[in-house]
Amino acid sequence: MAPTVFIDGEAGTTGLQIRERLTNRSDVALLHLDDDVRKDTTARKEALNSCDLAVLCLPDAAAREAVALIDDNTVKVIDASTAHRTADGWVYGFPELDQDQAARIAEAGRVSNPGCYPTGAVALLHPLIASGLVPADAPISINAVSGYSGGGRQNIKNYEDPSAPNPVTTPLRSYGLALQHKHVPEMRKYAGLQRDPVFFPQEGRYSQGMLVQVPLNLWSLSKSASPSDLHDCLSTWYGDRSFVTVAPLEETSEMTHLGPEGLNGTNQMTLYVFGNEDRGQAVLVALLDNLGKGASGQAVQCLNLMLGLGETADL
């Protein structure tokens, strides 16, 4: 019998995409609540305790409530909210984090699905800090731009519906201006930073796709490193992984621009190292789909591992 999966919050952006990825698969069976009971606590509790794996696509408080409703400790959980990303007892759902992370996820009962921005930032920084090329106490800034779908259903409506209560008409806008974005603790913990990075996100007038950028003054690092050193480290770290690739330096040296939509609809992430050796500067860039590797695709990748299915199934 195929393992059963219940998506709590399947009407949201991430939930809909996960359901779409799983609907036609024969190796999992989806549990579904009708619209008139999908917010009913009793119905949700029954579904949460009768499935093999629950995927929580909920606001933080509702995700914590859902976990509390689970009495059956054999039920596995993937939480796509921020609620448990730095919590004890939860395994971080970025399978490429290091050599053993996919195995940890496969054995876990509780997995926190990473945020879209942290997926890119952690992928770029963690190998370099773990390898000693970038000091853990380095003053790091992370600049990023995402499609508006990352803000959820109401944000999508504000961009796409001129009659929405708060329509957005600008081509680009910055947010998180108080420098207290909820992704910062996650970035710091899994990148291996000793201090909070300066994180400055932006949102563009396009649906999905993102660029996460980390500028580095190489001359300021305690250990001398060239752009090629950074590239070699990332290439070695990710090796032949299915979903994270590092663009060759020959490719990046010939590029004149890079857009955020190149990997839309996929679970892929490509890392780039742009450098100027004479100036001692580099910019690390991650390109990914904020709804793919940054959300639903990564959740399905973790689900595949946790249920003993092929990691790349349906991806």
Write the layout of secondary structure elements.
Elements: E1 4-8, H1 13-22, E2 29-31, H2 41-50, E3 53-56, H3 60-69, E4 76-79, E5 91-92, H4 101-107, E6 110-112, H5 116-130, E7 141-147, H6 153-160, E8 172-174, H7 184-191, E9 198-204, E10 210-217, H8 227-238, E11 244-246, H9 249-254, E12 269-276, E13 281-288, H10 292-306
Parallel strand pairs: 1-2, 1-3, 3-4, 4-6, 5-6, 7-9, 11-12
Antiparallel strand pairs: 7-10, 8-9, 10-13, 12-13
Helix pairs in contact: 1-10, 4-10, 5-7
Description:
With 315 residues, the chain is α/β, with parallel strands linked by helices. The chain has 2 domains: 122 residues, Rossmann fold; 175 residues, Dihydrodipicolinate Reductase, domain 2 (2-Layer Sandwich), CATH 3.30.360.10. Strands 8-9-7-10-13-12-11 form a 7-stranded mixed β-sheet. Helix 1 packs across helix 10, helix 4 packs across helix 10 and helix 5 packs parallel to helix 7. The radius of gyration is 20 Å and the shape is globular. The two termini are 22 Å apart. The model has no long low-confidence stretch (mean pLDDT 94).
Q: How would you sum up this structure in a few lines?
A:
By secondary structure, this protein is α/β, with parallel strands linked by helices. It is built from 10 helices and 13 strands.
